[in-house]
């Protein structure tokens, strides 16, 4: 089969290369899947750079989530059968940027019938992250105002749709006119182009100086610092990541004085410590998809030849919506075929 693998750390466009290798074999509790679609995520770039918290042995295949068909259940797997269409996380080092990948059976969920392969694949990590951030961590209530940073990206676009589905008002911050238009099309009530406008006075004006009830922040850096200036009394800032490259060092006296909360979200820990909550969220998200309230924005489909550049562009923050890898099948057969 063809897989894109990393042999040494570096920039994705330099180190991610296609190879012909044997398909992996499922171990105990794993399933082998034929990859239908695999979205590009920021962690894929961090994996290439060896900067992610998970460091698989080299050489490895990145690709942390997918939509695919079960080909071969491993030992002890129940509830999954050959041909089942599933979404979920890939088991590194046999990631999703290949014709075949491995998944833990516990991390494979039925793909929503209402979504095609690309959108279904893109629903897993981003929408799970958005769901846990808004509902479990922030306790979002109908009628509240949510400030969403990086609103045209993967998790930001999910947060817009999920917040609107919950009956909230959304103020979206995006970088550039094209991304601002995308955020508006996704349903944001107010959109701020951070390259030309300051979101702080916009938030204050839109809330009669009260501020945003919830801040969804996957950016960090200056986005976080300025969000503390427009968060509401008893507001909640959910810290999801640091795409800016700068990890804030907040003055906790400010949180004390303004009575707001700083909430961390490492969604991957829920998969380890409370997987039943991930399953519950999957059911909620599937229902929202079936009702047409959420639908991942897939802006580009890429093949093996263009995938390294796609991962690089996601790392640089120059993309809008989700980029999805579609493998060219037929160059390799599963082990039992």
Can you tell me about this structure?
This protein is an alpha/beta fold and 337 residues long. The chain has 2 domains: 144 residues, Quinone Oxidoreductase, Chain A, domain 1; 143 residues, NAD(P)-binding Rossmann-like Domain (Rossmann fold, 3-Layer(aba) Sandwich), CATH 3.40.50. Helices cover 32% and strands 25% of the residues. It has 11 helices and 15 strands. The strands form 3 sheets. Strands 3, 4, 5, 6, 7, 14 and 15 form a 7-stranded mixed β-sheet that branches. Helix 7 links the parallel strand 11 and strand 12. The chain is globular and about 60 Å long. The mean pLDDT is 95.
Compact overview of the structure:
The chain is of the alpha/beta class and 337 residues long. Helices cover 32% and strands 25% of the residues. It has two domains: 2-115 and 296-325, Medium-chain alcohol dehydrogenases, catalytic domain (Quinone Oxidoreductase, Chain A, domain 1, Alpha-Beta Complex); 126-268, NAD(P)-binding Rossmann-like Domain (Rossmann fold), CATH 3.40.50.
């Amino acid at each position: 089969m063809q897989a894109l693998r990393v042999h040494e750390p570096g920039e994705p466009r330099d180190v991610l290369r296609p190879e012909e290798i044997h398909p992996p074999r499922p171990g105990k509790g794993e399933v082998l899947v034929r990859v239908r679609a695999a979205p590009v995520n920021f962690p894929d770039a961090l994996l290439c750079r060896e900067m992610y918290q998970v460091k698989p042995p080299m050489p490895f295949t990145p690709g942390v989530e997918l939509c695919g068909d079960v080909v071969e259940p491993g030992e002890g797997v129940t509830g999954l059968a050959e041909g089942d269409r599933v979404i979920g996380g890939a088991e590194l080092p046999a990631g999703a940027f290949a014709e075949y990948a491995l998944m833990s059976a516990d991390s494979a969920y039925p793909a929503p019938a209402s979504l095609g392969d690309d959108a279904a694949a893109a629903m897993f990590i981003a929408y799970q992250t958005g769901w846990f951030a808004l509902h479990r961590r922030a306790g979002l209530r109908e009628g509240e105002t949510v400030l969403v940073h990086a609103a045209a990206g993967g998790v930001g676009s999910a947060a817009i749709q999920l917040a609107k589905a919950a009956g909230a008002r959304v103020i979206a911050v995006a970088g550039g006119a094209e991304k601002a238009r995308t955020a508006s099309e996704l349903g944001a009530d107010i959109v701020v182009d951070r390259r030309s406008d300051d979101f702080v006075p916009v938030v204050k004006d839109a809330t009669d100086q009260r501020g945003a009830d919830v801040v969804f922040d996957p950016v960090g850096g200056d986005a976080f610092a300025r969000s503390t200036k427009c968060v509401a009394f008893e507001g909640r800032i959910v810290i999801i990541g640091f795409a800016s490259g700068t990890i804030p060092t907040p003055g906790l006296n400010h949180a004390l004085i303004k009575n707001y909360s700083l909430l961390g979200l490492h969604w991957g820990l829920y998969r380890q410590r409370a997987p039943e909550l991930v399953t519950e969220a999957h059911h909620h998200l599937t229902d929202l998809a079936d009702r047409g309230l959420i639908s991942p924005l897939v802006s580009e489909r890429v093949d093996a030849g263009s995938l390294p550049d796609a991962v690089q562009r996601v790392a640089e923050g120059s993309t809008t919506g989700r980029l999805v890898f579609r493998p060219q099948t037929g160059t390799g057969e599963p082990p039992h075929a």
